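so im writing up the methods section and need the TonB-dependent receptor record in one place, dumping it here so i stop losing it
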Amino acid sequence: MNTSHSRLVKRHSGVRALIVFILAVCCSGFSALAQEVTATITGIVTDPTGRIVANADIKAQDLDRGTIWPTRTNGSGFYTITRLPVGRYEVRVISPGFRTAMESPIELQLNQVASGNIKLVLGAANETVQVTSEAPLLQTDTTDVGTVIDARTNVSLPLASRNYLQLTLLTPGAVTVQPTGFQSGQNAGQVARPEINGNRFDANSYLLDGMDNNDAGSNYVAYSPQPDAIQEFRVLTQNAPADFGNYMGGVISASIKEGTNSFHGSAFEFFRNDVLNANQWMNKLIPGSIIPRQKLRWNEFGGTIGGPILKDKLFFFADYQGERFDFPRTTSTITVFTAKERTGDVSELVAAGKTIVDPQTGLPFADNVIPQPRLSQTALAIVNSQYYPTPINGLLQANAHNTTAVKTDSDQGDGRIDYAASVKDHFMGRFSYSDLTNPTVNSFALDYNPYNLVSTWNFVTGYTRTISPNLLNDARLGVNYVRVGQNQTTSNFSGDATSLFKIPGLTTSFLPAMSFSGGYVSNFGTKESVTDNYDTSVQYSDVVNWVRGKHSMRFGFQGWRIRTNGLFNGSNGQAGSFGFNTTYSGSPETDFLLGLPTNVGVGNLGAEWGQRNNVFAGFVQDDWKVTDRLTFNLGFRYETHTPFVEANDKEVNWDPQTGTFELPGQNGNSRALYNSYNGYGNYQPRVGVAYQLMPKTTVRASYGLSSFMEGTGLGLRLPGNPPQPIAASANYSALGYPTTTLDQGFTPIAVPAGCTIAGLESAAPNCYKGAIIYSWDKHVQPAHSNQWSLFVQHELSPSAIVQVGYVGQSTTHLTNAELLTQLVWDSPGVVSPSPFFAQNRPVINQLAYIFGTFAAAHQNYNALQTQMQGRLNHGLSYLLSYTWSRCMTNSQGFWGEGGQSQAPSAWWQNTYNPSGENGACYYNVKGVFTGYVIYDLPFGRGRQFGTNMNRAADAVVGGWKVNVIPTFRGGFPLTLSSNSDHSGTNSFQNRPDCIASPHVLHKQTIGNGFYGYRWFDPASYQEPKDGYFGNCSVSSVYGPGEQNIDASIAKTFSITDHQNIEFRTEFINAFNHVILDAPNNGGIDIANPDGGTIGQIKTSEGARNIQFALKYNF
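--- predicted struct ---
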């Protein structure tokens, strides 16, 4: 991988503006994305008559570490103690003429601003008035919106793979289209992520101990600590203060535990086995052919330890977790060619309702049998080879099995040191690592065996200096490294595809991917789409906290240096692909047997490249406590992103309007080849007001602007352009007959080697023939998200609150992909050339596709969000949330519909009519109810019933705990697709015609020898007429919802007062609800009266899993 140093990025007006801003604000560099991983206590000290008490000494002592944090009330009687590590505190107030006031214990949560108003009592200072209290749940001083998950909740709730990010779904406004993605066992890289408040899953920012925890190339989560290592984490979903930036969705901030003055820790083992689990619905679809439940061997083990090195001074914490996740045998149904079809007899397809014709005559084949001379020799060699499965029954669908073995091995750990050098000086340092491998082996040899790996390390160090009682500085430095390698394919048979199947021109030894759209046969082969990217982020931040009068102010600066090194083979992978649908004969199976592909993609071995960019930000935040009941949160942030620059200038851009190519740093071009952005989106106000309407009721309103630069993965980056190795493609959907057959392989469209800059200038075929070109608009920029909220919060009791609120977002300049080679639809049957590349027709006429990247999409979100929270009281704690929302957009994003369905929806149906793409976001859910309940049953020693019972009885009836996570939600919207380009414009996203209101059948049995559910009626849809686009809108039908309850029962056996053993049984999908996957939403088949496979559901999410756990705590 190339790691050459990049040249210095040319300074621009945005950087100069930033420098002027910082100097004007604080004459020094201070933190920015600030990364609050601590808490704050703030309040006013008064005498018995209510008058303020100035210059009172205040000390907050950490009860677990002995650390003291001093301050003093100012002339307004106001005090603020910031940067307090989360935990339990004792607050003492000393002032001449008054008794010492002591408030303890106060439990502080992550990012919490706790109100600590104290009224003194007349008397001597050596007399103490003690008040036992907790930090109030009522949010009286801040207006951001979010949820805190503390350590007790994090380690108690049932999590299938101990992925703490699954608990982000407990937050109002958070959903996921991949619920089982959180159960994969992956702790880094392409793990499941929530969609928050109407934003794409890659629009979140992940922080660990206040520093960056993101994979900048693809917006993955860089590292997920194990639950036992997390002190707590917070999900900020709306209107974060000016400390935070580079986000549109949520800011998920976690902190690793610290050591204390006593040794504490745990050792644990979590265990799952298939003998404990229920079988999935989809394995029992076919009567008499039940597939056994998938084999499972799951072990997660590890431990934590923390304690003092020097009492009250130096502390350590360390943890390790190993994961051995093995599906040694998972059998699933696939569909293969029948015995008759392997000879060219397609009569079974005709009998099932398909109309099949000879592409040369337009008439049916005699006796529905393809003449032998017309059959593709390559197709026959594939389906009759020993590597292609034979049918196990007489069905057209689900007539074969594939047995898959998947193994995930992971090791991870954290180490942290905290040092209180003095009352004024505190240091910390942490190092985290993880290493994961994930190989897959298929019994269906032609499916090949993908292999994934993820390696991560994350480092942060910080220094907090108390300069004076009202002035504090916090500086941090962090480094984050992520390597994600995907789809590194291996074969489980000898020989290569060229000799075995007689396909000329292959670039690897693998059989290229064979895909079938609109038919029954399962795909096979491999593109071998290897991606290997190495991301490194270096981040520095410094923040000053200053209390003056009734103002608690923060000033900061932050900078990132981001290095992304990648290897990408293009959209066709290394091995390439052949696609078949209903274009020629009416059946993709028949087209394959004839060797007539609709599209062909030639693979390449790819090239290594490295891109660099910087992010700079500065902010000021003033939390102004106007009165005891009224607080203003006033913030302003400046944030700028420099464009991506290739380290060795190995990239080329094409101006999308003129079609002329541009080289880095030449002819007036910048090295990035697109413009720096410096506009209103860089200047981000954050304003909020909190008013305590009544002693137990607050009203909070806020507005904020944030920006976010979305990564496009590796698939649209400019280093993929010639003269680097390029991919080539050919699409024949607009032709009556393809010009390349399967038997000819890639030879007719293969791109000759040797492209040079001179070749680009002369439009040489070895640079452009059949190539895919990537073009970035000069005005690509970060998205701008306007966010606003209004909440009413009421305290039901000292331990319970309820809140109801409205949140809204409006986002512009979202990154979107556009197909620039699409023809312009003028009228039915009349098209004209693309207006893009208008001055370079010799080039565009040779190209296969031009993929453009723009910042022209938009979305909006409106929601009613309610939440009831109960802090631990009599053994019970809970959080219950309901969200009703509506999210609309004209782009589903670079990643399409997030893997929940089969339709590619990153592209517009008509590039020249973006308003026609308006529809519900693919993750839009009209209603979601979720939450958790944790209940320590009131029986046993120290509890409500049997508090003095003996140890023997307590071992039986005491120490029981029940934990529940309920989830009930509606379905996600789906965009339907058709098989053919009826408009004649070479569109990538063809939709059908809606000829009736969508008729949702829900769980209607398919019948006619097919098994599963038909979710919606295909009679409501049809293929468009030739010369027309489909009139179905985006997101025109909704899929199935989810009803699920995860639960656990735990029993604690006390050994001593400070040691215990916990045995836990967890039930994932406890009541074994069938959670259906999305229906097939692609391939309207007008030749089949039954509609083909569209609307069918044949797969489901996981059935009930039971997990045992044993933990030793000390």
